[in-house]
Structure formats: C-alpha cells, structure tokens
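Database export, one record per block. Field names are fixed; values are copied verbatim from the stored entry.
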Amino acid sequence: MNIHLKKKVDAALLVTFVLVVLTGILLHLKKHGIVLEPRPVLKVIHYVLGFCMSALAVVHIKACLPALRALAVRHRVFTFATWFLLLAWVMVLLTGAAKLLAPVKIPHLGLIHYWVGVFMALAAVLHLRTALPWLLQKFRHRSVPRP
C-alpha cells in the first residue's frame, strides 16, 4: 500500500474510532437517565461512523498484518492488545449488526455490545500507545513523492 494512502487511512481510522466511542457513550447515557435528543439521529451517526470505521479497519488490518507478526517479538503488549482489539472489533461488529438488523429486540444485546465496545476501546488505547507515536512521526517527516 502507498505510504501516503496508509497515513490517510490510519488518521481517518483514528478519527472515526474516537467519534464512534463518543457517540456510543452518548447513546449509553440513556441507561443513566440522560436522554440526548434527537436520539435517532445520534444512532444513525453511530451506525454510519461504525461502518466507516470498520471499512477503514479492514484496510488497516490488511496493510499492517505482516508487520504485526514481525513486531510480536519486540512488543508483546502491543501484539496482545492488537489481537485482543481485533477480536473485540469483530464482536462489536457482530453485536452491532445484530442490533441493527434483528427484526425483534434481543434482550441484553445492547449491554453486551456496550461492554465489548468498552473492552475494544481499552485495547485500542493500548494499541495506540505504541502505534500513535509512529503515526505522528510519519506525519512530521514528510517524504518527497517520487516522480
């Protein structure tokens, strides 16, 4: 993958991840008696951003999976967090799709989706602890494109 495209995908993935987490927290506030209106609009924003984040995550995973295997020796916490993040992302994606597409309300699915999302966010923070400085370094050192 082109390094410039990878930087854009990584940056967009970070932004969409933060926005998905924020909208998810805002939606969860209803369980604590705080209802933000218009709630249906907030749900649509959360779903669309989640879909965009998932599409970007697929591109990111395809580009970075070979490097992850090489990093496994030096950065064990990063590798563990990344594999846990991947598993949690799949679970969040499946529970979110089930919530969206199920013809009937499935008991406790929203709470499961929320908690798996919390664990995914924690794994993402561990993942970003190693990856974000590298991403920022790539943005600081602009490479000259070859003709």
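Remark 1: The two ends are 17 Å apart (CA to CA).
Remark 2: Residues 51 and 93 are 9 Å apart (CA to CA).
End of record.
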